[in-house]
Design brief:
The protein is an alpha+beta fold. The protein has one domain: Bacillus phage protein. Helix content is about 40%, strand content about 15%.
Length: about 130
């Protein structure tokens, strides 16, 4: 079941903020009216769930593989994307791109929380993420 636009936006910001914290950014200032939060060096928080310029380096930096499958709904609608071990339904998102970006962020969070990769790995990818958001 898809949520309204404001709830969806807030869920994206929450995922982005959680990922930033896992990547070591602890001083995050709330700023919802300008699409999210800022971290301690006054750089805009990368829009990992909303912008391919931010999500692309995240996906390649953590080597996230993607797979797609058709939905099994009553009329064949929907479909899913699997990013690593994370599966996301297209019908829960405004479009397929947003679903894929959300799945990538969710998978990177899973990897970091379950210590499948180090918090600083990939070091150069983490640095380039902040640069790609500018």
């Amino acid at each position: 079941m898809r949520m309204n636009d404001q709830e969806y936006f807030r869920s994206c910001i929450a995922k982005e903020r959680h990922l930033a914290q896992l990547l070591g950014h602890q001083h995050i200032e709330e700023c919802y009216e300008s699409a999210g939060t800022l971290w301690d060096n006054a750089s805009a928080l990368p829009q990992w769930t909303r912008d391919w310029r931010a999500c692309g380096p995240l996906m390649t930096g953590y080597r996230i593989t993607l797979a797609y499958a058709q939905g099994l709904g009553e009329q064949g609608e929907g479909g899913v994307v699997t990013a690593g071990t994370t599966t996301v339904s297209f019908s829960d998102h405004p479009n397929r791109d947003r679903a894929v970006m959300y799945a990538i962020v969710k998978e990177v969070i899973h990897l970091l929380e379950h210590h499948h990769v180090g918090k600083t790995q990939p070091g150069r990818a983490t640095a380039s993420l902040a640069d790609s958001a500018r």
